[in-house]
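quick q for whoever's on today - can somebody do inverse folding on this one?? i tried earlier but teh output was garbage lol. tokens:
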């Protein structure tokens, strides 16, 4: 009996050992399969940066300085650019959009709110919004757009090497080409006004560039500044009989009040050469400048690199658009009796 028990015990031990070995082999096979699957998943994710952190929902804060066509287009381009990269609102991304309505104090309030909410990234649209955010956080990644010269505005160390938590895209205009355009449309012009808001650092920067470019082509200039949209009508009216044309850069205050600028200027036969196409659509004569929707999309590409960990703002140079668009308001040209040269017509139709 004891011998039989020993045999049975031995068989049990042998059976257990075989089962354990079989289980280990099965586990190893499953583990190897899982490792292959995991490796494939990583490879797939690497090929699509928008899926680099599967299941994560990103939060992006947005501070826009004011409402006008250029800034609105930049934001739309940013949202669409992220969507094309696989970051879709309501799916894997959430936006907290805030608009300061042209009030610098609102920019400060919005900046504090967004930083306290600790998003994954913040988008700042226009210089005042960017400056307010730069003052309250050195940690949260920030991408800016529609900022003419980030270094001159004090939000990065240099445009080539930002060195902190901020990078993005510039809306620097081709001022020389805009002055050339002015003379093509208005060959008899002798004196122009440079109209901008004195409280916007980006506008002062552009105004200085415009004055230099105008002098280089033999144009005399006169500065005409406003402090807010309420000043626009009076300031433009003061230019009647004194200048042959008005040049205005990508100034947020002027853009917001462009209909008023155009109402006074056009009724007094003063053509307006603008910094961007939205201002032309609202009554300006012409511009040769950037496409803000495309600028927003370019900013989105930079944001994706930051979200995926591919790059850090400190190491990402400020980017610029290479392509410029010619926009001429033919109705305004007809109203002012201005003939559009065939050369410009050909460029408009390209």
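ok took a stab at it. sequence:
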């Amino acid at each position: 009996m004891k011998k039989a028990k020993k045999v049975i015990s031995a068989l049990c031990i042998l059976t257990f050992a075989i089962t354990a070995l079989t289980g280990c082999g099965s586990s190893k096979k499953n583990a190897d399969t899982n490792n292959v699957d995991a490796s494939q998943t990583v490879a797939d994710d690497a090929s699509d940066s928008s899926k680099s952190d599967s299941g994560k929902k990103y939060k992006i804060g947005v501070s826009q300085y004011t409402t006008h066509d250029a800034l609105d287009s930049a934001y739309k381009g940013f949202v669409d650019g992220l969507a094309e990269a696989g970051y879709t609102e309501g799916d894997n991304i959430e936006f907290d959009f805030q608009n300061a309505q042209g009030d610098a104090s609102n920019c400060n309030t919005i900046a504090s709110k967004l930083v306290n909410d600790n998003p994954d990234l913040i988008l700042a649209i226009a210089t005042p919004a960017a400056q307010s955010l730069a003052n309250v956080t050195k940690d949260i990644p920030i991408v800016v757009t529609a900022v003419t010269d980030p270094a001159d505005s004090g939000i990065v160390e240099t445009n080539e090497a930002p060195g902190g938590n901020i990078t993005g895209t510039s809306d620097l205009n081709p001022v020389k080409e805009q002055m050339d355009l002015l003379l093509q449309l208005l060959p008899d012009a002798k004196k122009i006004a440079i109209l901008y808001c004195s409280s916007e650092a980006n506008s002062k920067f552009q105004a200085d560039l415009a004055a230099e470019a105008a002098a280089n082509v033999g144009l005399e200039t006169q500065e005409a500044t406003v402090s807010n949209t309420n000043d626009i009508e009076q300031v433009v009216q003061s230019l009647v009989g004194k200048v042959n044309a008005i040049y205005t850069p990508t100034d947020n205050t002027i853009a917001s009040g462009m209909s008023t600028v155009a109402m006074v200027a056009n009724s007094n036969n003063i053509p307006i050469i603008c910094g961007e196409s939205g201002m032309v659509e609202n009554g300006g004569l012409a511009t040769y400048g950037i496409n803000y929707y495309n600028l927003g999309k370019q900013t989105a590409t930079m944001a994706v690199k930051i979200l995926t960990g591919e790059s850090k703002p400190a190491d990402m140079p400020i980017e610029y658009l290479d392509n410029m668009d010619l926009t001429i308001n033919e109705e305004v040209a007809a109203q002012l009796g201005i003939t559009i040269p065939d050369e410009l017509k050909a460029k408009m139709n390209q």
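fwiw The first strand starts at residue 58 and ends at 64. also Residues 138 and 318 are 17 Å apart (CA to CA). so keep that in mind when u check it
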